[in-house]
Amino acid sequence: MDETSEVVRQRREKAQALVDEGVELYPNDFRLSHTVESVREYIRKQKEDVDDTAVFSMAGRIIGRRSFGRATFLHFRDYTGQLQAYVKQDEIGQNTYELFKKFDIGDFIGIKGTVFLTKTGEWTISAKEIRLLSKTIRPLPEKFHGLKDTEKRYRQRYLDLVMNPEVRAIFVNRARIIQTFREFLLERDFLEVETPMMQPLPGGAEATPFKTFHNALGVELFLRIAPELYLKRLVIGGVERVFEINRSFRNEGISTQHNPEFTMLEFYVAYATYEDLMTLTEEMFRFVTQRVLGVSGFTYQGNKIDLEGPWRRLSLKDALSELGGVDPSAFNDRERLLDFAKSKGIQVTKVRRLGKILTKLFDVLVEPKLIEPTFIVDYPVEISPLARRSASDPELTERFELFIGGSEIANGFSELNDPVDQKKRFLDQVADRDEGDEEAHHMDEDYVLALEYGMPPTAGEGIGIDRFVMLLTDVPSIREVILFPQLKSRT
3-140: what CATH class? Predict the structure, then answer.
């Protein structure tokens, strides 16, 4: 018989025995006065003057126990931490103690008592009252081996959080990171908004969308791939500093860097340029890192990352030449670029535009080498359909992508606010779609109409929150920073 099945059978029998003795397995009338951390804070403040008559009421999950006849030491954990409890038959009575012995590791308990320091120097609550608050039927993973199987950790994240405190710490830090980004922008007079997640046309990025259908309206809708075009509509409407922390969706592959559902921060500011955004981004990342980690740098996968500025800036072509080994004389020669890609074992599927070939080479040959914070600038117009043209070279745009730790973290640019140029760019994208590029932009006539009412000079940026959290928590996979990542179905 499967060992787990036998344990489950035994626990069901214990649960029934408790019911037979009149014990409610899932009561909801126990009230707390303290958390584990608040008790520890009380002890720290009182030091040697801890009141040994003060009664504390706490609750949590049993995570370990050692019984010695008529006394038991156990450890329990709430959301703030872990504490030891001492349960003695003479204190709670024989009948209650006999019931208590039927409690299992994993059960939730309520406990009232006073605190004392054991001979081994561990602060402990001496139980005057103990109650079962929730009976578990299935055992937690074995203590010393824990929950190590990666697939099971993601599918049963609740067990991962119980057994691996370091995992919970990642998500606590994730919440702090998002809140700190929010604080940074709010302090600078940005307005937080929410824009549609279901859109009649997907826009704001080159990606394959998820499709759905609205029965009442009888129309096909798309889960957004980015909130960009709606946020810029708000700038047109006079909301000149605006941001959204949003969920976006892209129907693409799953990898250590990609999840079909992900979190972005997008913000837009009128009367600013991409140069202003690069400066702001340096300030923002240092602010968030200092608040969350207490330092202005960190180590990611063995590499020390220093966020003190100014950060390096390289043009796309200089990066390809200096770090990717591409001969600059080949930048305008499609066949030479494709031959070079082939020589490096790089498969290029989008060959209609030179810009696509260049960015594919960049992704493979350059991006993994960009460990220290680096802004890559001067992207071609043909791969930047929403970005303003460069005043010095109309074939390039005022756009940057930020790379840290070998991964793209942010993308920003001075916004294209010329409706005539924007419509022409959309038409070029439609031509790409007709040639088979399913990720190219749709023609968004309503957005062009909005631009015709006038958008002030504006700069905007999108930041990948999940990837930034990966950096600050030093994990190599995006699945480690998303509570419930998408996984293949079990067959």
Answer: mainly beta
